[in-house]
Amino acid sequence: MADADSQRCVSALLNGITQRLYYGNTEITEEFLKNELYAEMTEDEFRALHDKMRSLLKSIASADMDQAQLEAFLTAQTRKQGGGAVSPEQAAALARFWKTHRSRVRESLLAQSRWEPALRGLKWRVDLHTSASRGQVSSSPVALVELELGRTGESSEFVCVEFDEQKVNLVLKKMAELQESIDSIVHRS
């Protein structure tokens, strides 16, 4: 296969993998890609190539590599010994593909990682309670928090919560514990 043909097939393979992996196009299957692009390859050869390209693409996408990072990564991949090495044609196709598709893949990853309904907005203020429920006068501060929640393409719902000083301290304590848990996980890896 000529270099241009090889790069074209690798680019098409990367596009097919991206369509399925990041854009949810279930019509693009491994079998379809093999029959359309690499009909002359055995199943095992194609599976090895497909898995290698998919793995590389996932690594590049999860790191959201810029051009300098990508160049260093691909250089390291081409210098590998054995079956895991990337050919210069494959590296060139990956670089060209990522330059074109980086922003769209990133948007897809962000969309896949969002929880629904999402927090769209938050407003808060501190007020003084001037009267209590039984006519008693109280001047304790309260925090009023308004959360705007909604799903993509739908109108928002609003939730209003009132916290006294004790509840605010409890929420802050829980948030600190959550931050400590996240930090311990991040620093372990």
From TrEMBL:
Superkingdom, natural source: Eukaryota
A Pfam short name: COMM_domain
InterPro entries: COMM, COMMD1_N, Murr1
Entry's Gene Ontology BP terms: copper ion homeostasis; negative regulation of protein localization to cell surface; negative regulation of sodium ion transmembrane transport; positive regulation of protein ubiquitination; regulation of proteasomal ubiquitin-dependent protein catabolic process
COMM domain residues: 118-186
An example Gene Ontology CC term for this record: endosome
Family: Belongs to the COMM domain-containing protein 1 family.
Name the UniProt record assigns to this protein: COMM domain-containing protein 1
Lineage, highest ranks first: Eukaryota, Metazoa, Chordata, Craniata, Vertebrata
